[in-house]
Amino acid sequence: MTANSMTGAQMVVQALVDQGVDTVFGYPGGAVLPIYDELFQQSKIKHILVRHEQGA
Q1: What is the tens place of the pLDDT at every residue in 16-46?
Q2: N or C of the chain: less Cβ packing under 10 Å?
């Protein structure tokens, strides 16, 4: 996929990969669901689910 056809969520995940991020902590919902969709379509970043925002 070229940079011109990337979604915002794809750009966020690619930026995390480019910076060497291998683990993210989060609580999925609403506005960030597209980012989670992208996270779960790749294998370079591990997601750790937390129970509430303060735990993240």
Answers
A1: 999 999 999 988 888 899 999 999 999 999 9
A2: N
Q: What is the pTM of this model?
A: 0.80
Q: What is the DSSP string of 17-43?
A: HHTT--EEEE---GGGHHHHHHHTT-S
Residues spanned by the domain of 44: 3-55
* Distance from C-alpha of 1 to C-alpha of 4, rounded to nearest angstrom: 8
Sign of CA dihedral 43, 14, 29, 23: positive
Q: In the chain, how many domains are there?
A: 1
